[in-house]
Amino acid sequence: MLEKDQIKLEIQEESVYPNKEIHGKIIINYDGRYDTIVINSQIEDSSDIVKYIEMNGKKINYNYPRISLFKSDLPNPKTVEFSAITTHIPKNISKVKFRTSIIQEHKEIANDVVFLEIRKKEVNDDMAEL
């Protein structure tokens, strides 16, 4: 049986507005072998996606809700930092589920899930940012 917290997903923001960056960090505490780290994102009740725009300090343009990162391509196999963005405009509030997994030979070793809210931007919110 595997220990809890072998992989930990942290999202800096608790909620965001459309077109605002989301900042995440994956911490890998797993000492065994693994091939890839997978990040999935899903906006509940929507076909809209979260677009990954930065991975470990490098700008990327990845328009899919799932990204696989090979361990051999990671500069630091214990930490992954990413930025993402969505153009999704909720009716009021939408939830985004981020899920990350450690994969070894097509088998999931460990995972973590974090939720984030996307809020509809109101006119008063513009004034609060000033």
Keywords, please?
Immunoglobulin-like, single chain, 130 residues, 5-stranded mixed sheet, 10 strands, 5-stranded antiparallel sheet, mainly beta
| Count of alpha/pi helices | 1
Got a strand count? 10
Q: What percentage of the residues does DSSP assign to strands (E)?
A: over 45%
- What is the subunit arrangement here? single chain
How do the strands of the widest beta sheet line up side by side?
1-3-8-5-6
Overall average pLDDT: 90
Q: Which blocks of ≥5 consecutive residues have pLDDT under 50?
A: none
Main beta-sheet strand count, sense and barrel state: 5 strands, antiparallel
Q: What does this protein structure show overall?
A:
This protein has one helix and ten strands, in the order ββββββββββα. It has a five-stranded antiparallel sheet with strand order 1-3-8-5-6, with no helix packed on it. Strands 2-10-9-4-7 form a five-stranded mixed sheet, with no helix packed on it. The longest helix has 6 residues. The protein has a single domain, classed as Reeler domain (Immunoglobulin-like, Sandwich), CATH 2.60.40.4060. The chain starts with 6 loop residues before the first strand and ends with a helix. By secondary structure, it is mostly beta strands. The mean pLDDT is 90. The relative contact order is 0.30.
